[in-house]
């Protein structure tokens, strides 16, 4: 049995014990869970393969995309994320530099499937209102547990 | 042509703020914000930033940043002295 998420589907938070019980009851078979570093690296590679672009928001982005920053010169834009190699399920981006216009407040971020792609994941950042045109550099590390 | 850092009209300072945050999803976010702040409310700006950021540094030399000395400036209500946000649009003097 293979469970496959549709393209663009946010990565889920799984109740593992509940899932195993559900599967056993539904299909009469146990599920083998591989817990080695190889699987964790495969999963972190899947995360970096899906989360190819990043955005900064004026609101926190946790369960859905926030309000993207806009304006400025140089103008704000979504940026491609440059992920390194996964090691034992851990993978990091290099620092991604976003141009922020005067008057904008950065409060959250999101990762998505492309420049105009679907939101996948995100979170709150340290809130900062910008007095002048400046920059916000974000470095993400994903850890597959 | 953009004004040089030694232009006497430049009185803003570069403020660099850094933090590392552990996210519920297991991600770690390393954040660095760089802003350029005028002298009239620099101290208040830095004091406010230090309540949220783990590290805040102010440049020794004046630096107008990518917006230039004539770029737009935003002063939050907490620092403006007039009880409301103040936005000073870009003057375009250097163009």
What best-fitting shape of chain A do the alpha-carbon axes yield? elongated
Structural class of chain A: alpha+beta
| Sheet of most strands of chain A | 4 strands, antiparallel
**What percent strand of chain B?**
35-45%
Quick overview of this protein structure:
Chain A has 145 residues and is α+β, with helices and mostly antiparallel strands. Helices cover 18% and strands 30% of the residues of chain A. In chain A, the strands form two sheets. A four-stranded antiparallel beta sheet of chain A has the order 2-1-5-6, with no helix packed on it. A three-stranded antiparallel beta sheet of chain A has the order 3-7-4, covered by helices on one side.
Would you kindly provide a written description of the structure presented here, covering whatever features stand out?
The complex is a heterodimer of chains A (145) and B (95). With 145 residues, chain A is of the alpha+beta class. Helices cover 18% and strands 30% of the residues of chain A. Chain A is built from two helices and seven strands. The two termini of chain A are 22 Å apart. With 95 residues, chain B is mainly β. Chain B has two helices and five strands. A three-stranded antiparallel β-sheet of chain B has the order 2-1-3, with helices on one face. In chain B, strands 4-5 form a two-stranded antiparallel ribbon. In chain B, strand 1 and strand 2 form a beta hairpin. The model of chain B has no long low-confidence stretch (mean pLDDT 85). The chains are: A alpha+beta (145), B mainly beta (95). The interface between A and B is medium-sized, with 34 and 35 residues.
């Amino acid at each position: 049995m293979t469970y496959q998420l549709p393209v663009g589907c946010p990565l889920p938070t799984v109740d593992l014990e509940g899932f195993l019980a559900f599967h056993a009851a539904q299909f009469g078979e146990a599920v083998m869970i591989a817990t080695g570093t190889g699987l964790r690296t495969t999963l972190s590679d899947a995360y970096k393969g899906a989360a190819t672009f990043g955005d900064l928001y004026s609101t926190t982005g946790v369960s859905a995309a926030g309000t993207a920053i806009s304006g400025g010169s140089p103008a704000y834009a979504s940026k491609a994320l440059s992920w390194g190699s996964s090691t034992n399920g851990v993978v990091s981006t290099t620092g991604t530099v976003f141009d922020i216009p005067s008057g904008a407040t950065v409060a959250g971020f999101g990762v998505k499937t492309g420049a105009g792609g679907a939101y996948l994941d995100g979170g709150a950042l340290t809130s900062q209102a910008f007095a002048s045109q400046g920059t916000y550099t974000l470095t993400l590390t994903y850890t597959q547990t | 042509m953009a004004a040089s850092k030694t232009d006497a009209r430049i009185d803003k300072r570069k403020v660099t703020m850094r933090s590392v945050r552990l996210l519920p999803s297991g991600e770690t976010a390393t954040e660095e914000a760089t802003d350029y702040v005028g002298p009239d409310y620099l101290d208040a700006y830095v004091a406010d930033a230090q309540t949220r950021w783990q590290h805040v540094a102010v440049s020794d030399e004046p630096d107008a940043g990518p917006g230039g000395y004539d770029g737009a400036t935003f002063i939050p209500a907490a620092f403006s002295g007039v009880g409301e946000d103040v936005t000073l649009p870009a003057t375009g003097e250097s163009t």
